[in-house]
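User: Can you write out an input/output pair for a complex, sequences first and structure second?

Assistant: Here is one pair. Inputs:
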Amino acid sequence: MQRLKLFLPLITFAAIAIFFYTMVSRIDQGEYNPQDLPSALINKPFPSFSLAKLEDLTVSLQQKDLLGNITLVNVWATWCPSCHVEHGYLNYLFSEKDMIIVGVNYKDKAPAAQRWLQTKGNPYRFNIFDPDGILGLDLGVTGAPETYVLDHRGFVRFRYQGPLNEMVWQDKFQALIEQLQQEQLAYNGRGSR
Amino acid sequence: MRLLALLLLLFSPALMAVVETYHFDDDEKRDRYQTFVEELRCPKCQNQNLAGSNSPIAKDLRRELHRLLEEGRDDEQVVEYMVSRYGEFVLYRPRFNPETAVLWLAPMIFLALGLALVAMVFRRQKKPAGAATETLNDNEKKALNDILKDQDVGDTNG
């Protein structure tokens, strides 16, 4: 017993070392990012807004335009390098996985953003034009790109900060989207009865 | 040389940190603004407050803060506005709730543990010292004296 006590500092040190080592390796493997912030909007309705549509600036968009479907809301801008990287994958999600994606064109200029969609392809159902970052502020956006998952009721269920790709999709989105589809089916079933 | 000093002054980080200035109706609001930019954390650049950050999001939040204060919102409403968008994270002094309880209570728990440990060590140290003199019986005393005597003899001989 007395002998054991002598080793107590060493044991404590080893425990702390193991803890830090696992944290660092989790960061290395991308499982954990200390920069990630939990969104304050999780399980809350998407904030209300009234902003122009990027494709036709005379049209006004509201919160109700996001209801009824499982939707990815993708915050992007032409000044954002990671958005260039991400765009190809968004095109893929739209064409191959039939995802409904709504864009939030964040703190951008309309002509540049419209040109972007023409040249790089347009995976978005429509784009909310947010030149002053008003909606971005209500969403708690800290930078682009960010992607929000909305369920069929228009509630925010998940927020991802950073560019999407296949690995991120498999890891963080796939299971959630399937779960939300189940929820929607259950809800629709109850409604038609 | 003087030019260099002037240039250094112009480009000092302290001056670069906050570029925009806001006008306030009264000094009380300006003071509150100062307190808030010191105590609110920039959501993008995690170890800087709003006052020290150049990032666009910090700039936006300073603008919003100015707007909220000019609209006459009280401190609680301003904090609520920030937390409802960016979470408890934006407060350098988080409010006490189940999520932040560990943050607030951990130091006190560790202090209590430390004090308990110190108390234990002290009590343990006192006991053997007192116990040793009591447990020496006559035979042992004699043996001890013999040893000491032997040593004295050895010393004088040597």
